[in-house]
């Protein structure tokens, strides 16, 4: 019986390493691929922008003197969910190999592993 197993990884690199191990050590794997989340357009816009910081320099009687510090934006200001590169793995294999593949996926950092129960 042919079975499809799916799992999620934090980064495409982790998914690629897990698929490499599965292809190299498990027989009966017909196809193994992954799809990663592309960074959003808004994230790209934020990372190419600049960041302005207003610094109070002096307060003389009723007048205030301030300075503006301009620097390139870093990835630190981008909210976490927009930086995420969650990757979904799809493996089509022989149904008798689901436990073996599931254990490798778990050992390599996979989560949300979805596979039919072995009979």
Describe this protein's structure:
The chain is α+β, with helices and mostly antiparallel strands and 119 residues long. The chain has a single domain (2-114), classed as Alpha-Beta Plaits (2-Layer Sandwich). The protein contains four helices and six strands; from the N terminus they run βαβαββαβαβ. It has helices at residues 12-25, 41-48, 80-83, 98-107, and strands spanning 2-9, 29-36, 50-60, 63-72, 87-94, 111-114. The strands form two sheets. Strands 2-5-1-6 form a four-stranded antiparallel β-sheet, with helices on one face. It has a two-stranded antiparallel ribbon with strand order 3-4. The longest helix has 14 residues, at 12-25. The radius of gyration is 24 Å and the shape is rod-shaped.
Short description:
This protein is α+β, with helices and mostly antiparallel strands and 119 residues long. It has 4 helices and 6 strands.
Could you name the key traits of this structure?
single chain; 119 residues; alpha+beta; Alpha-Beta Plaits; 4-stranded antiparallel beta sheet; two-stranded antiparallel ribbon; 4 helices; 41% strand; rod-shaped
Q: Which bin fits the share of residues in helices? A: 25-40%
Provide the domain count: 1
Number of helices: 4
CATH topology label: Alpha-Beta Plaits
- Number of E-state strands: 6
Report the sheet with the most strands, covering strand number, pairing sense and barrel closure.
Answer: 4 strands, antiparallel
């Amino acid at each position: 019986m042919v079975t499809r197993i799916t799992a999620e990884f934090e980064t495409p690199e982790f998914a690629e390493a897990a698929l490499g191990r599965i292809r190299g050590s498990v027989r009966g794997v017909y196809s193994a691929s992954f799809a990663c989340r592309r960074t959003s357009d808004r994230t790209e816009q934020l990372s190419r922008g600049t960041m302005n910081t207003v610094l109070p320099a002096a307060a003389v009687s009723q007048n205030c003197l301030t300075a503006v510090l301009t620097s390139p934006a870093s990835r630190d200001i981008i909210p976490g969910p927009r930086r995420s590169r969650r990757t979904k793995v799809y493996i089509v294999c022989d149904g008798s190999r689901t436990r073996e593949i599931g254990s490798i996926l778990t050992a390599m950092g996979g989560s949300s592993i979805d596979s039919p129960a072995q009979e």
